[in-house]
Amino acid sequence: MAVVELTRITKSYGEGDNRQTVLQEVNLSIEAGEYVTILGPSGSGKSTLMNIIGCLDIPSSGNYFLKQEDVSRLSEDELARIRNQEIGFIFQQFQLLPRLTVLQNIELPLIYAGISQKERRQRATDLLARVGLAEKASVYPHQLSGGQQQRVAIARALVTKPALLLADEPTGALDQKTGQQIMALFQELADEGKTIVMITHDTEIAQQAKRIVRIEDGHVKEANQK
């Protein structure tokens, strides 16, 4: 089953002579359990494509089906629900809240989802152990290394049991060795059957996925299966 199905997605900004088309007639299908990277240089349209896949933006035309639901024309409230329940986001700069402990950061999406305190705590604790940071539950983000912060961010992304993990340059703020460790964790998640879409400009990072989708000037140029 396709988790992500994009059909003739176009995205434009501005009006009249100032109108700029960033994505043009993009077709893309991602199956459940696939590990895919979207590779492209700055200005290629990959960030816009990520925003549409992540329901952070809507297309100007075309359709986007997430788990067979057409999300391309949903209201803001409905999109917020989709983002909270179906998509786990992992960002380059971690996006952890500094005044919350590590465990509280992981629990946060479950508060918005209305999950009970007991279940929130159990899920967050289990995931913290899963990413190798069980002993860091009560510390704050600034007390962690960059790699540890990204592991917490990955645990937070997983806590709602989303249909899709969406990672935007997840090693961009890390040194090479730490970045390799994070990529190894993504490989473990892929081996467990998680559906992962990773946005990157780094060819070496892209090669670690099973499939590479190349985007250039708003067009998907090729989709390679390794």
From TrEMBL:
Keywords: ATP-binding, Nucleotide-binding, Transport. Signal peptide: none annotated. InterPro entries: AAA+_ATPase, ABC_transporter-like_ATP-bd, ABC_transporter-like_CS, MacB-like_ATP-bd, P-loop_NTPase. One of its GO terms (molecular function) is ATP binding. PROSITE patterns: ABC_TRANSPORTER_1, ABC_TRANSPORTER_2. The keyword Transmembrane does not apply. Gene3D superfamilies: P-loop containing nucleotide triphosphate hydrolases. Residues 4-226 form the ABC transporter domain. SUPFAM superfamilies: P-loop containing nucleoside triphosphate hydrolases (SSF52540). The keyword Acetylation does not apply. Pfam families: ABC_tran (PF00005). Belongs to the ABC transporter superfamily. This is ABC transporter ATP-binding protein. It comes from Exiguobacterium antarcticum. The lineage of its organism: Bacteria, Bacillati, Bacillota, Bacilli, Bacillales.
